[in-house]
């Protein structure tokens, strides 16, 4: 499953995702990963959550981001949940690639039984109609 956490910049999306990740950690069987484009929240997460600063890997577009996620899953089949904080910063892209990224993540989710939760800097009304069922209220 792919879920979207929506809201404008500074609306608390990151803290909401951190709280969700920390709360969910005890209820999953596999591993959890939190992707972010900096190291700002590394100490806010439960120590069992793998934290990755994607800037260290030099990702510059949505295709590289998707390859990165595939590599993450390929190296550890126990990954059950992936939190992606700031898709646009990580993939250095915008709304124009959102549907394609969600489609690819949805494919990976179904094939490898991984849940993806990611934040986007848009209000729900700005999200394409085809993706609104993925928005976490």
Q: Summarize the helix and strand pattern as letters.
A: EHEEHEHHE
Mean pLDDT: 89
> Which blocks of ≥5 consecutive residues have pLDDT under 50?
none
Shape: globular
* Radius of gyration (Å): 14 Å
The CATH topology label is Rossmann fold
The rounded distance between the terminal residues' Cα atoms is: 15 Å
In CATH, the homologous superfamily goes by the name: P-loop containing nucleotide triphosphate hydrolases
Q: The biggest beta sheet, please?
A: 5 strands, parallel
CATH C-level label: Alpha Beta
What structural class do you assign from the helix and strand content?
A: alpha/beta
Number of strands: 5
- Overall CATH architecture: 3-Layer(aba) Sandwich
As for the number of domains, it is 1
The number of distinct helices, counting runs of at least 4 residues, comes to 4
- What amount of the residues lies in strands? 15-25%
The share of residues in helices is 25-40%
Q: Give the spatial strand order of the biggest sheet.
A: 1-5-4-2-3
What oligomeric arrangement do these chains adopt? Answer: single chain
Structure explained in plain terms:
By secondary structure, the chain is α/β, with parallel strands linked by helices. The protein has a single domain (2-134), classed as Rossmann fold (3-Layer(aba) Sandwich). Helix content is 34%, strand content 20%. The chain is built from 4 helices and 5 strands. It has a 5-stranded parallel sheet with strand order 1-5-4-2-3. The radius of gyration is 14 Å and the shape is globular. The model has no long low-confidence stretch (mean pLDDT 89).
